[in-house]
Hints:
The complex is a heterodimer of chains A (about 230) and B (about 230). Chain A contains 4 helices and 17 strands. With about 230 residues, chain A is mainly beta. Chain A has a single domain, classed as 4-Layer Sandwich (Double-stranded beta-helix). The interface between A and B is large, with 45 and 43 residues.
Amino acid sequence: MRFNTHYRPAHSLTVVELGPNETVRAEASAMISMTRNIRVATTGPLNRSTGGFFGGLKRAFLGGETFFTNTFTAENGPGHVTLAPALTGDMLVHELAQNHQLFIQGGSYVAAPDSVQLDTKWQGMKGFFSGESLFFLNATGYGPVLMNAFGAVQTIDLDGELIVDTGHLVAFTSGLQYTVSKASAGWIKSFLSGEGFVLKFTGRGRLYVQTRNPAEYGRSVGRALPPREA
Amino acid sequence: MRFDIIDAPNFALLRIGFDAAGEKIVAESGAMVAMGSEIDVQTSMRGGLLAAAKRKVLGGESIFQNTFTAKQAGQQLFLAPPAEGDMRQKVLAPNEPFFLQSGAYVAHIGDGLVIDTKWGGVKGFFSGVGLFLLKITGPGTIFYASYGALHEVNVGAEGYTADTGHIVGFSHGLEYNVRSFGGMKGLFFSGEGLVADFRGQGTLYLQTRNPSSLASFLHPFRPVKARNS
Protein backbone atom coordinates (compact mmCIF):
# COMPACT_ATOMS: atom_id res chain seq x y z
CA MET A 1 0.00 0.00 0.00
CA ARG A 2 1.24 3.44 -0.85
CA PHE A 3 -0.10 6.86 0.12
CA ASN A 4 0.70 9.48 -2.52
CA THR A 5 -0.38 12.96 -1.51
CA HIS A 6 -0.91 15.66 -4.15
CA TYR A 7 -1.83 19.35 -4.15
CA ARG A 8 -0.12 20.04 -0.87
CA PRO A 9 -0.40 21.89 1.35
CA ALA A 10 -3.70 23.75 0.89
CA HIS A 11 -5.93 21.35 -1.03
CA SER A 12 -4.25 18.03 -0.44
CA LEU A 13 -5.63 14.78 -1.80
CA THR A 14 -4.12 11.35 -1.15
CA VAL A 15 -4.20 8.53 -3.66
CA VAL A 16 -4.11 5.22 -1.81
CA GLU A 17 -2.58 2.63 -4.15
CA LEU A 18 -3.81 -0.83 -3.21
CA GLY A 19 -2.31 -4.11 -4.34
CA PRO A 20 -4.58 -7.07 -5.09
CA ASN A 21 -6.70 -7.91 -2.00
CA GLU A 22 -5.15 -5.13 0.03
CA THR A 23 -7.47 -3.25 2.38
CA VAL A 24 -7.38 0.30 3.67
CA ARG A 25 -9.63 1.51 6.46
CA ALA A 26 -10.63 5.14 6.03
CA GLU A 27 -12.64 7.67 7.94
CA ALA A 28 -16.15 7.42 6.48
CA SER A 29 -16.51 10.80 4.82
CA ALA A 30 -13.02 11.02 3.29
CA MET A 31 -13.60 9.12 0.03
CA ILE A 32 -13.49 11.26 -3.12
CA SER A 33 -13.18 8.61 -5.81
CA MET A 34 -12.07 5.06 -6.47
CA THR A 35 -11.52 2.46 -9.13
CA ARG A 36 -14.41 0.15 -9.88
CA ASN A 37 -12.81 -2.96 -8.41
CA ILE A 38 -12.95 -1.62 -4.86
CA ARG A 39 -15.26 -3.37 -2.45
CA VAL A 40 -16.58 -1.08 0.28
CA ALA A 41 -17.73 -2.18 3.70
CA THR A 42 -18.87 0.01 6.56
CA THR A 43 -17.48 -0.84 9.93
CA GLY A 44 -19.69 0.97 12.45
CA PRO A 45 -18.39 3.05 15.27
CA LEU A 46 -14.95 2.09 16.40
CA ASN A 47 -15.49 2.59 20.04
CA ARG A 48 -17.59 -0.16 21.52
CA SER A 49 -16.06 0.54 24.86
CA THR A 50 -17.23 4.14 25.02
CA GLY A 51 -20.94 4.04 24.48
CA GLY A 52 -21.41 1.92 21.40
CA PHE A 53 -23.41 3.01 18.43
CA PHE A 54 -25.30 5.86 20.07
CA GLY A 55 -22.27 7.10 21.90
CA GLY A 56 -20.54 7.29 18.58
CA LEU A 57 -23.46 9.06 17.02
CA LYS A 58 -23.67 11.57 19.77
CA ARG A 59 -20.08 12.55 19.49
CA ALA A 60 -20.18 12.54 15.75
CA PHE A 61 -22.81 15.25 16.00
CA LEU A 62 -21.35 17.12 18.88
CA GLY A 63 -17.77 17.16 17.89
CA GLY A 64 -18.05 17.08 14.13
CA GLU A 65 -15.96 13.95 13.99
CA THR A 66 -16.72 10.68 12.37
CA PHE A 67 -16.67 7.55 14.38
CA PHE A 68 -17.40 5.46 11.38
CA THR A 69 -14.92 3.95 9.03
CA ASN A 70 -15.19 2.29 5.67
CA THR A 71 -12.90 -0.46 4.50
CA PHE A 72 -11.84 -0.42 0.87
CA THR A 73 -10.51 -3.64 -0.62
CA ALA A 74 -9.05 -4.03 -4.11
CA GLU A 75 -10.47 -7.11 -5.80
CA ASN A 76 -9.19 -8.87 -8.91
CA GLY A 77 -6.03 -6.82 -9.18
CA PRO A 78 -4.69 -3.49 -8.01
CA GLY A 79 -6.83 -0.42 -7.51
CA HIS A 80 -6.90 2.93 -5.79
CA VAL A 81 -9.00 5.13 -3.54
CA THR A 82 -8.57 8.89 -3.27
CA LEU A 83 -9.13 10.55 0.10
CA ALA A 84 -9.31 14.17 1.22
CA PRO A 85 -10.40 16.07 4.31
CA ALA A 86 -13.32 18.51 4.42
CA LEU A 87 -11.30 21.57 5.34
CA THR A 88 -8.37 23.36 3.76
CA GLY A 89 -5.05 21.86 4.69
CA ASP A 90 -2.30 19.34 4.43
CA MET A 91 -2.17 15.57 4.82
CA LEU A 92 0.66 13.64 6.41
CA VAL A 93 1.80 10.07 6.91
CA HIS A 94 3.28 8.70 10.12
CA GLU A 95 5.09 5.37 9.75
CA LEU A 96 4.05 3.37 12.76
CA ALA A 97 6.62 0.85 13.90
CA GLN A 98 5.87 -2.37 15.77
CA ASN A 99 5.66 -1.89 19.55
CA HIS A 100 5.13 1.83 19.18
CA GLN A 101 1.89 3.74 19.52
CA LEU A 102 0.43 6.84 17.97
CA PHE A 103 -2.34 8.87 19.60
CA ILE A 104 -4.40 10.70 17.01
CA GLN A 105 -6.80 13.54 17.69
CA GLY A 106 -10.23 12.20 16.64
CA GLY A 107 -10.79 14.53 13.73
CA SER A 108 -7.31 14.08 12.28
CA TYR A 109 -7.44 10.39 11.38
CA VAL A 110 -7.90 9.61 7.69
CA ALA A 111 -6.75 6.08 6.88
CA ALA A 112 -4.46 3.16 7.65
CA PRO A 113 -3.96 -0.41 6.44
CA ASP A 114 -5.25 -3.52 8.20
CA SER A 115 -1.97 -3.94 10.00
CA VAL A 116 -2.78 -0.89 12.12
CA GLN A 117 -5.30 -1.40 14.91
CA LEU A 118 -7.34 1.52 16.19
CA ASP A 119 -8.89 1.94 19.56
CA THR A 120 -10.38 5.00 21.19
CA LYS A 121 -8.98 6.56 24.26
CA TRP A 122 -11.84 8.72 25.46
CA GLN A 123 -10.74 11.57 27.62
CA GLY A 124 -13.96 11.55 29.57
CA MET A 125 -14.71 14.48 31.82
CA LYS A 126 -11.45 16.20 31.12
CA GLY A 127 -12.32 16.53 27.51
CA PHE A 128 -15.93 17.35 28.20
CA PHE A 129 -15.20 20.37 30.33
CA SER A 130 -12.63 21.78 28.01
CA GLY A 131 -15.33 22.40 25.43
CA GLU A 132 -13.19 20.73 22.83
CA SER A 133 -14.12 17.17 22.01
CA LEU A 134 -10.92 15.68 23.22
CA PHE A 135 -10.57 12.09 22.28
CA PHE A 136 -7.73 10.16 20.82
CA LEU A 137 -7.56 7.19 18.55
CA ASN A 138 -4.85 4.91 19.77
CA ALA A 139 -3.04 3.32 16.82
CA THR A 140 -0.98 0.19 17.40
CA GLY A 141 0.53 -2.40 15.08
CA TYR A 142 2.63 -1.27 12.15
CA GLY A 143 2.31 0.56 8.84
CA PRO A 144 1.59 4.04 7.48
CA VAL A 145 -1.08 6.14 9.19
CA LEU A 146 -2.61 8.90 7.08
CA MET A 147 -3.82 12.02 8.85
CA ASN A 148 -5.11 15.44 7.90
CA ALA A 149 -4.35 18.85 9.29
CA PHE A 150 -6.31 22.07 9.24
CA GLY A 151 -3.71 24.38 7.73
CA ALA A 152 -0.09 23.31 7.60
CA VAL A 153 1.65 20.76 9.82
CA GLN A 154 4.50 21.39 12.21
CA THR A 155 6.46 18.28 13.20
CA ILE A 156 8.03 18.69 16.62
CA ASP A 157 10.53 16.18 18.00
CA LEU A 158 10.32 16.79 21.70
CA ASP A 159 12.68 15.90 24.47
CA GLY A 160 11.42 17.82 27.48
CA GLU A 161 8.23 19.76 27.96
CA LEU A 162 5.83 21.54 25.64
CA ILE A 163 2.37 23.01 26.08
CA VAL A 164 0.03 22.53 23.12
CA ASP A 165 -3.46 23.89 22.55
CA THR A 166 -5.94 21.02 22.29
CA GLY A 167 -7.41 22.34 19.04
CA HIS A 168 -4.03 22.46 17.35
CA LEU A 169 -2.92 18.94 18.20
CA VAL A 170 -2.93 16.38 15.38
CA ALA A 171 -1.11 13.41 16.93
CA PHE A 172 1.70 12.36 19.23
CA THR A 173 3.75 9.24 19.77
CA SER A 174 4.03 7.05 22.83
CA GLY A 175 6.90 8.19 24.95
CA LEU A 176 5.08 11.42 25.63
CA GLN A 177 2.76 11.82 28.57
CA TYR A 178 0.37 14.67 29.00
CA THR A 179 -1.73 16.37 31.58
CA VAL A 180 -4.69 18.61 30.81
CA SER A 181 -4.33 22.00 32.36
CA LYS A 182 -5.52 25.55 32.20
CA ALA A 183 -3.70 27.94 29.92
CA SER A 184 -3.55 30.69 32.48
CA ALA A 185 -3.37 30.77 36.28
CA GLY A 186 -6.89 30.57 37.64
CA TRP A 187 -10.11 29.43 36.04
CA ILE A 188 -11.46 32.79 35.01
CA LYS A 189 -8.25 34.06 33.52
CA SER A 190 -7.86 30.81 31.68
CA PHE A 191 -11.32 31.24 30.22
CA LEU A 192 -10.63 34.84 29.26
CA SER A 193 -7.32 33.99 27.66
CA GLY A 194 -9.20 32.30 24.84
CA GLU A 195 -6.85 29.37 25.07
CA GLY A 196 -9.23 27.20 27.05
CA PHE A 197 -7.52 24.01 27.98
CA VAL A 198 -4.07 22.99 26.95
CA LEU A 199 -2.09 19.81 27.04
CA LYS A 200 1.24 19.79 28.80
CA PHE A 201 3.46 17.17 27.22
CA THR A 202 6.44 15.64 28.94
CA GLY A 203 8.94 13.06 27.74
CA ARG A 204 10.51 12.13 24.49
CA GLY A 205 8.64 11.65 21.23
CA ARG A 206 7.11 13.29 18.22
CA LEU A 207 4.22 15.75 18.05
CA TYR A 208 2.29 16.83 14.98
CA VAL A 209 0.66 20.22 15.34
CA GLN A 210 -1.74 21.92 12.90
CA THR A 211 -1.38 25.64 12.27
CA ARG A 212 -5.13 26.33 12.42
CA ASN A 213 -7.74 25.27 14.95
CA PRO A 214 -10.99 23.90 13.46
CA ALA A 215 -13.12 24.90 16.45
CA GLU A 216 -11.79 28.46 16.41
CA TYR A 217 -12.49 28.66 12.70
CA GLY A 218 -15.98 27.24 13.19
CA ARG A 219 -16.74 29.76 15.90
CA SER A 220 -15.40 32.74 13.98
CA VAL A 221 -17.36 31.91 10.81
CA GLY A 222 -20.35 30.26 12.48
CA ARG A 223 -21.37 33.28 14.46
CA ALA A 224 -21.82 35.17 11.20
CA LEU A 225 -24.26 32.58 9.88
CA PRO A 226 -28.05 32.79 10.34
CA PRO A 227 -29.35 30.96 13.40
CA ARG A 228 -30.35 27.33 13.07
CA GLU A 229 -33.22 25.54 14.75
CA ALA A 230 -32.34 24.13 18.13
CA MET B 1 -8.59 38.24 -27.41
CA ARG B 2 -5.87 36.90 -25.17
CA PHE B 3 -6.38 35.19 -21.86
CA ASP B 4 -4.40 33.42 -19.18
CA ILE B 5 -5.10 31.94 -15.78
CA ILE B 6 -2.97 33.42 -13.03
CA ASP B 7 -2.66 32.88 -9.26
CA ALA B 8 -3.43 29.17 -9.74
CA PRO B 9 -3.87 26.70 -8.16
CA ASN B 10 -5.16 28.15 -4.90
CA PHE B 11 -6.71 31.44 -5.98
CA ALA B 12 -7.01 31.17 -9.75
CA LEU B 13 -7.92 34.32 -11.65
CA LEU B 14 -8.80 34.62 -15.34
CA ARG B 15 -7.13 37.57 -17.07
CA ILE B 16 -8.57 38.63 -20.42
CA GLY B 17 -7.01 41.15 -22.79
CA PHE B 18 -9.25 42.43 -25.59
CA ASP B 19 -7.40 42.98 -28.88
CA ALA B 20 -10.22 44.63 -30.77
CA ALA B 21 -13.48 46.46 -30.24
CA GLY B 22 -16.49 44.14 -30.32
CA GLU B 23 -14.75 41.14 -28.76
CA LYS B 24 -16.78 39.65 -25.94
CA ILE B 25 -16.89 37.07 -23.19
CA VAL B 26 -19.86 35.82 -21.20
CA ALA B 27 -19.42 35.18 -17.47
CA GLU B 28 -21.35 33.95 -14.46
CA SER B 29 -22.82 36.86 -12.54
CA GLY B 30 -20.60 37.87 -9.68
CA ALA B 31 -17.42 36.69 -11.39
CA MET B 32 -16.11 40.15 -12.31
CA VAL B 33 -13.15 41.26 -10.21
CA ALA B 34 -11.94 44.28 -12.15
CA MET B 35 -12.27 45.67 -15.65
CA GLY B 36 -11.30 48.52 -17.91
CA SER B 37 -13.69 51.42 -18.19
CA GLU B 38 -14.25 50.93 -21.92
CA ILE B 39 -16.10 47.63 -21.57
CA ASP B 40 -19.83 47.35 -22.02
CA VAL B 41 -21.70 45.02 -19.65
CA GLN B 42 -25.04 43.50 -20.55
CA THR B 43 -26.95 41.38 -18.04
CA SER B 44 -29.24 38.67 -19.31
CA MET B 45 -30.94 35.50 -18.21
CA ARG B 46 -29.23 32.53 -19.69
CA GLY B 47 -31.51 30.42 -21.86
CA GLY B 48 -34.50 32.62 -21.24
CA LEU B 49 -36.71 33.07 -18.22
CA LEU B 50 -38.07 29.54 -17.82
CA ALA B 51 -34.76 27.78 -18.19
CA ALA B 52 -33.19 30.24 -15.80
CA ALA B 53 -35.88 29.73 -13.19
CA LYS B 54 -35.59 25.99 -13.45
CA ARG B 55 -31.86 26.21 -13.10
CA LYS B 56 -32.23 28.34 -10.02
CA VAL B 57 -34.57 25.80 -8.44
CA LEU B 58 -32.68 22.69 -9.39
CA GLY B 59 -29.11 23.77 -9.59
CA GLY B 60 -28.89 26.67 -7.20
CA GLU B 61 -26.93 28.49 -9.85
CA SER B 62 -27.43 32.17 -10.42
CA ILE B 63 -29.98 33.08 -13.04
CA PHE B 64 -28.06 35.93 -14.53
CA GLN B 65 -25.04 36.10 -16.72
CA ASN B 66 -23.07 39.08 -17.89
CA THR B 67 -21.72 39.72 -21.36
CA PHE B 68 -18.60 41.86 -21.42
CA THR B 69 -17.91 43.56 -24.77
CA ALA B 70 -14.83 45.66 -25.41
CA LYS B 71 -15.59 49.09 -26.83
CA GLN B 72 -11.98 49.52 -27.84
CA ALA B 73 -8.77 47.51 -28.09
CA GLY B 74 -6.45 47.09 -25.12
CA GLN B 75 -9.11 46.68 -22.46
CA GLN B 76 -8.52 44.21 -19.61
CA LEU B 77 -10.97 42.12 -17.60
CA PHE B 78 -10.41 39.88 -14.57
CA LEU B 79 -12.81 37.09 -13.61
CA ALA B 80 -12.79 34.82 -10.56
CA PRO B 81 -14.92 31.95 -9.24
CA PRO B 82 -16.44 32.26 -5.76
CA ALA B 83 -14.43 29.61 -3.90
CA GLU B 84 -10.71 29.16 -3.40
CA GLY B 85 -9.24 26.82 -5.95
CA ASP B 86 -8.09 26.21 -9.49
CA MET B 87 -9.44 27.13 -12.91
CA ARG B 88 -9.05 25.56 -16.36
CA GLN B 89 -10.10 26.19 -19.90
CA LYS B 90 -11.45 23.76 -22.45
CA VAL B 91 -11.50 24.50 -26.16
CA LEU B 92 -14.40 22.69 -27.81
CA ALA B 93 -14.52 21.80 -31.50
CA PRO B 94 -17.80 22.18 -33.41
CA ASN B 95 -20.37 19.74 -31.99
CA GLU B 96 -17.99 18.54 -29.30
CA PRO B 97 -19.87 18.21 -26.01
CA PHE B 98 -18.50 18.76 -22.51
CA PHE B 99 -20.30 18.22 -19.23
CA LEU B 100 -19.93 20.59 -16.33
CA GLN B 101 -21.39 20.59 -12.85
CA SER B 102 -23.43 23.80 -12.86
CA GLY B 103 -21.54 25.49 -10.04
CA ALA B 104 -18.21 25.04 -11.83
CA TYR B 105 -19.06 27.29 -14.76
CA VAL B 106 -17.13 30.58 -14.81
CA ALA B 107 -17.21 31.99 -18.33
CA HIS B 108 -17.22 31.19 -22.02
CA ILE B 109 -16.18 32.62 -25.36
CA GLY B 110 -17.86 31.89 -28.67
CA ASP B 111 -21.25 32.81 -30.13
CA GLY B 112 -21.69 29.27 -31.39
CA LEU B 113 -21.26 27.69 -27.97
CA VAL B 114 -24.47 26.17 -26.61
CA ILE B 115 -25.06 25.69 -22.90
CA ASP B 116 -27.90 23.27 -22.43
CA THR B 117 -29.35 23.64 -18.98
CA LYS B 118 -32.20 21.25 -19.67
CA TRP B 119 -29.92 18.34 -20.27
CA GLY B 120 -29.50 16.13 -17.27
CA GLY B 121 -32.11 18.13 -15.41
CA VAL B 122 -34.27 15.20 -14.39
CA LYS B 123 -31.33 12.96 -13.79
CA GLY B 124 -29.70 15.76 -11.86
CA PHE B 125 -32.83 16.30 -9.86
CA PHE B 126 -33.08 12.73 -8.71
CA SER B 127 -29.40 12.42 -8.09
CA GLY B 128 -29.41 15.21 -5.54
CA VAL B 129 -28.08 18.72 -5.69
CA GLY B 130 -24.54 17.58 -6.18
CA LEU B 131 -24.85 16.67 -9.79
CA PHE B 132 -26.81 19.15 -11.81
CA LEU B 133 -24.99 19.11 -15.09
CA LEU B 134 -24.70 21.56 -17.93
CA LYS B 135 -24.19 20.11 -21.37
CA ILE B 136 -21.95 22.46 -23.28
CA THR B 137 -21.48 22.06 -27.01
CA GLY B 138 -18.80 23.71 -29.12
CA PRO B 139 -17.43 25.52 -30.95
CA GLY B 140 -16.02 27.79 -28.27
CA THR B 141 -13.95 27.98 -25.14
CA ILE B 142 -15.27 27.30 -21.66
CA PHE B 143 -13.66 28.27 -18.34
CA TYR B 144 -14.46 26.24 -15.26
CA ALA B 145 -13.30 26.22 -11.66
CA SER B 146 -12.85 23.82 -8.77
CA TYR B 147 -13.14 24.20 -5.01
CA GLY B 148 -9.68 23.04 -4.02
CA ALA B 149 -7.36 21.45 -6.52
CA LEU B 150 -8.48 20.06 -9.87
CA HIS B 151 -7.76 16.36 -10.05
CA GLU B 152 -7.86 14.80 -13.49
CA VAL B 153 -8.68 11.13 -14.01
CA ASN B 154 -8.39 9.30 -17.32
CA VAL B 155 -11.24 6.84 -17.29
CA GLY B 156 -10.70 3.70 -19.32
CA ALA B 157 -12.58 0.51 -20.00
CA GLU B 158 -12.55 -0.50 -16.33
CA GLY B 159 -14.65 2.53 -15.31
CA TYR B 160 -14.37 4.79 -12.28
CA THR B 161 -16.44 5.90 -9.26
CA ALA B 162 -16.56 9.41 -7.79
CA ASP B 163 -18.43 11.22 -5.03
CA THR B 164 -21.01 13.47 -6.74
CA GLY B 165 -20.07 16.47 -4.63
CA HIS B 166 -16.53 16.33 -5.95
CA ILE B 167 -17.34 16.12 -9.66
CA VAL B 168 -16.43 19.22 -11.64
CA GLY B 169 -17.06 17.88 -15.12
CA PHE B 170 -16.16 15.30 -17.70
CA SER B 171 -15.43 14.98 -21.37
CA HIS B 172 -17.41 13.47 -24.19
CA GLY B 173 -17.35 9.68 -24.17
CA LEU B 174 -18.30 9.11 -20.55
CA GLU B 175 -21.65 8.05 -19.18
CA TYR B 176 -22.64 7.65 -15.58
CA ASN B 177 -25.15 6.22 -13.15
CA VAL B 178 -25.75 7.66 -9.71
CA ARG B 179 -26.23 5.43 -6.71
CA SER B 180 -26.09 5.84 -2.96
CA PHE B 181 -22.80 5.09 -1.36
CA GLY B 182 -22.77 2.52 1.38
CA GLY B 183 -22.21 3.38 4.92
CA MET B 184 -22.73 6.34 7.12
CA LYS B 185 -21.17 8.88 4.87
CA GLY B 186 -24.27 10.38 3.35
CA LEU B 187 -26.50 9.81 6.28
CA PHE B 188 -24.61 11.95 8.71
CA PHE B 189 -22.01 13.99 6.99
CA SER B 190 -22.07 15.50 3.55
CA GLY B 191 -25.81 15.11 3.33
CA GLU B 192 -25.39 13.55 -0.07
CA GLY B 193 -23.76 10.19 0.13
CA LEU B 194 -24.08 9.68 -3.58
CA VAL B 195 -21.50 8.46 -6.01
CA ALA B 196 -21.47 8.29 -9.79
CA ASP B 197 -20.20 5.21 -11.58
CA PHE B 198 -18.60 6.24 -14.85
CA ARG B 199 -18.11 4.07 -17.88
CA GLY B 200 -16.72 4.71 -21.35
CA GLN B 201 -13.56 6.49 -22.36
CA GLY B 202 -12.77 10.04 -21.39
CA THR B 203 -11.46 12.46 -18.80
CA LEU B 204 -13.11 13.12 -15.47
CA TYR B 205 -12.34 16.29 -13.50
CA LEU B 206 -12.67 16.21 -9.73
CA GLN B 207 -12.31 18.88 -7.06
CA THR B 208 -10.43 18.01 -3.89
CA ARG B 209 -12.80 19.93 -1.61
CA ASN B 210 -16.58 20.04 -1.50
CA PRO B 211 -18.72 23.06 -0.55
CA SER B 212 -21.35 20.95 1.19
CA SER B 213 -18.72 19.33 3.43
CA LEU B 214 -17.61 22.77 4.53
CA ALA B 215 -21.23 23.74 5.14
CA SER B 216 -21.74 20.56 7.20
CA PHE B 217 -18.66 21.39 9.23
CA LEU B 218 -19.88 24.92 9.94
CA HIS B 219 -23.50 24.04 10.66
CA PRO B 220 -23.03 23.12 14.37
CA PHE B 221 -21.31 26.47 14.93
CA ARG B 222 -24.32 28.50 13.84
CA PRO B 223 -26.09 30.34 16.63
CA VAL B 224 -29.24 28.59 17.82
CA LYS B 225 -32.58 30.33 17.20
CA ALA B 226 -34.17 31.61 20.39
CA ARG B 227 -37.50 30.00 21.30
CA ASN B 228 -40.55 32.24 21.29
CA SER B 229 -42.26 30.77 24.33
